């Protein structure tokens, strides 16, 4: 797989070379978003309140140029508005042409980018990880597990009959080209020292007043892997859908983990309705989460009622009313259940 991706990158580079001098120099444009949320949660007395306020802000710099041979070359740089770690979220170079798209840099793998989950419009979805920002539970239900925004090479095929495939390769953390500092620089890599192969297949089509989205995605890392299947069906103002995922107990660890625990599994289902500037969604997720070989983990259920209203161009008011229940699988864990509400504004620019 590594040799195939390197060969693909070389072919793309050859296709681009030779006509760059006549193209226009790339100029970056600015975009991004800002989210500001306020919320409250009622949960078990043994649980700790996390925060009444949350925010998320990113600034995007994007730019591209089209060469004389019709090939587009561009860059994406995403900066975190507030962080205690890496200021750069994603940064990669991309090349578009009749051959599809090739990327090199730090960003989502093909599986994470192509995975489909249940529709949701609120700020606290059942399958996006945000519930742990408000409730004291060990993990979220999930069906798409991404290895992280590590340096990688990605290739997406052209869309053919509604179908598109993608594959990514992330090198191991001890690779000599892992960034400044060579094999001593592991700050950019969260793969645990093992290469990751991420792949996906998707279908998007419209027919007779219906829209259909399908995805089959997964990753292999070390001695384990995960996979996920998802679908969304749109008709009129409605969208219904869901997903199911399985993550091997030794994903991202090694080839020698003893078979002492079950795999982590999760699924979600949901429905959304949009009318003019207003949208509403109702979604449910369940996960059987295993955190180690001793069998520790949690059974988590969560329901979210999401509301969204476009106040103007790039200004959306969103609200979530949610319920959750987390049962520890062993005596080493803790139980928690409760409900809450979060509301706020998202600005897109």
UniProtKB/TrEMBL annotation:
Residues 171-190 are annotated as: Disordered. InterPro entries: Gram_neg_porin_domain, Porin_dom_sf. One of its GO terms (cellular component) is membrane. Residues 7-321 form the Porin domain. The keyword 4Fe-4S does not apply. The keyword Signal applies. This is Porin. It comes from Thalassospira profundimaris.
């Amino acid at each position: 797989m590594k040799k195939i991706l390197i060969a693909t990158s070389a072919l793309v580079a050859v296709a681009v070379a030779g006509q760059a001098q006549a193209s226009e120099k790339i100029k970056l444009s600015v975009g991004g978003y800002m989210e500001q949320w306020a919320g409250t949660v009622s949960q078990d007395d043994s649980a700790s309140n996390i925060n009444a306020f949350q925010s998320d802000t990113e600034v995007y710099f994007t730019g591209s140029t089209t060469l004389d041979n019709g090939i587009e070359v561009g860059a994406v740089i995403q900066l975190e508005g507030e962080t205690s770690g890496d200021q750069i979220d994603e940064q990669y170079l991309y090349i578009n042409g009749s051959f599809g798209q090739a990327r090199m840099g730090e960003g989502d793998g093909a599986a994470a980018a192509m995975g489909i989950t249940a529709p949701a419009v609120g700020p606290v979805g059942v399958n996006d990880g945000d519930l742990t920002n408000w409730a004291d539970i060990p993990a979220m239900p999930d069906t798409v597990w991404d290895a992280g925004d590590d340096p990688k090479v990605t290739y997406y095929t052209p869309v053919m009959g509604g179908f598109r495939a993608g594959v990514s390769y992330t090198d191991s953390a001890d690779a000599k080209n892992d960034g400044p500092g060579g094999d001593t620089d592991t700050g950019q890599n969260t793969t645990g020292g093992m290469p990751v192969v991420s792949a996906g297949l998707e279908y998007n089509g419209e027919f007779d007043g219906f829209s259909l989205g399908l995805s089959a995605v997964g990753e292999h890392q070390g001695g384990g892997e995960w996979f996920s299947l998802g679908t969304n069906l749109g008709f009129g103002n409605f969208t219904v859908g869901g997903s199911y995922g399985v993550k091997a107990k030794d994903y991202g660890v090694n080839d020698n983990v003893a078979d002492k625990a079950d795999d982590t599994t999760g699924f979600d289902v949901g429905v959304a309705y949009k009318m003019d500037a207003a949208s509403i969604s109702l979604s449910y997720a369940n996960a059987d989460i295993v955190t180690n070989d001793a069998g520790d983990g949690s059974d988590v259920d969560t329901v979210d009622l999401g509301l969204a209203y476009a106040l103007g161009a790039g200004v959306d008011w969103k609200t979530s009313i949610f319920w959750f229940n987390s049962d520890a699988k062993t005596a080493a864990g803790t139980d928690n259940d409760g409900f809450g509400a979060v509301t706020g504004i998202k600005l897109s620019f």
